[in-house]
Specification:
FAD/NAD(P)-binding domain; 20 strands; four-stranded antiparallel beta sheet; alpha/beta; four-stranded parallel beta sheet
């Protein structure tokens, strides 16, 4: 969306197909999960009894992590890391930005949702700038020493945006160069590390933790994320409550949509086995993540996981891999086609 190749409607989906399969859909906000009475309460007041409760809380933001960055500040310095109005706000700010302006992206510390996301975003905005605002600049302020798919991204940035040259469109400021933003000044439009960086558009992706309902239901530990049994995804804090997706502590699996989809299937199989009095299945999980650097240049990472001898998720040796750094133009175009096919297939898998 940020480079005007999609609209918001293209990432919105209906639950009608699920309803046609005799699945009851209730659109409301869960305000309480009581593990003792095994009841879920929604904002409208209704209560639902459960034998097994599966939650996918997603993420919430640690608003106190960056001084000056509040929900109110996000209306001027959008995070756009929960799709919807924030996505449209950031797109509109980029579109309105003057040619020759500075776009600042503040990346979060690990762990966070979609590890390649900030760098794919920077790539796509750079492509938009190259074609519509060629005198503009992107600065990525990052508290980390490295980031997901870094060699693939930086190779593409060198190819298309002059990365590391005197007229590079993209500048990455990592941990070694004091890239951690500790404060923002909304009035001055500054992101501040050991010195201030002034931007025309500032996209702050704050540090993250599990979604609000996970915190309310006391499913999180001191890290702010949800510890789970890696074989079943049952919470290690509350019995018969299962957690999948970004909110879980499931490393080395990343916090990605495909990982969540794979985890949900393992979780469902474990619940069915439990209801039928059968042994817990041995899990096999997978993750694939595509990133589009330009409309014709895609990159990807893939990995397969299983359960290790200590009952923890582990990578399967020899499985998975990355797009080669020296991939041909034809292969990069195929990765783009694969990315769109992946999106179509996974959304069909979820919504029918």
């Amino acid at each position: 969306m940020l480079w005007n190749h999609r609209n918001i409607e293209s990432i919105q989906f209906s639950y009608e197909t699920l309803k046609s399969r005799d699945i009851k859909i209730v659109h409301d906000i869960v305000v309480n999960i009581d593990p003792q009475s095994k009841q879920v309460t929604i904002k409208g007041g209704d209560k639902f009894q459960y034998d097994a409760c599966v939650v996918a809380p997603g993420i919430s933001f640690s608003w106190d992590a960056i001084e000056g960055y509040t929900p109110e500040a996000s209306q001027l310095m959008p995070h756009a890391y929960q799709a919807g109005p924030q996505t449209l706000l950031l797109r509109d700010q980029i579109t309105a930005m003057k040619n020759g302006g500075t776009f600042i992206l503040v990346a979060p510390q690990n762990p966070f949702r979609c590890p390649p996301g900030p760098y794919e975003r920077a790539s796509q905005i750079a492509w938009y700038f190259k074609n519509h605002k060629p005198r503009s600049k992107i600065i990525i302020l990052d508290p980390k020493p490295k980031f997901s798919k870094q060699p693939l991204f930086t190779a593409a940035w060198e190819q298309y945006f002059g990365y590391k040259s005197s007229n590079s469109m993209i500048e990455w400021v990592g941990e070694a160069d004091a890239g951690e933003v500790t404060r923002v000044d909304v009035k001055k439009m500054q992101a501040i590390t050991t010195s201030p960086y002034k931007g025309d558009v500032i996209n702050v992706i704050p540090p993250q933790k599990a979604g609000a309902i996970a915190i309310e239901a006391e499913l999180v530990d001191d890290t702010g994320w949800c510890p789970i049994n890696h074989r079943t995804f049952e919470s290690t804090i509350h019995k018969d409550i299962y957690v999948v997706g970004d909110a879980t502590i499931a490393a080395p699996m990343p916090k990605s949509g495909y990982a969540a989809n794979s985890q949900a299937k393992v979780c469902a199989a474990a619940i069915v086995a439990k209801f039928n009095g059968e042994p817990e299945p041995f899990p096999s999980l997978v993750n694939t993540c595509y990133s589009l650097v330009t409309p014709d240049h895609g990159i990807s990472v893939a990995m397969v996981y299983n359960l290790g001898p200590k009952g923890k998720i582990q990578k399967v040796a020899g499985a998975g891999g990355l797009t080669p750094v020296d991939a041909s133009d034809e292969m990069r175009k195929r990765e783009v086609a694969y990315a769109y096919s992946w999106f179509k297939n996974i959304t069909h898998d979820i919504f029918g």
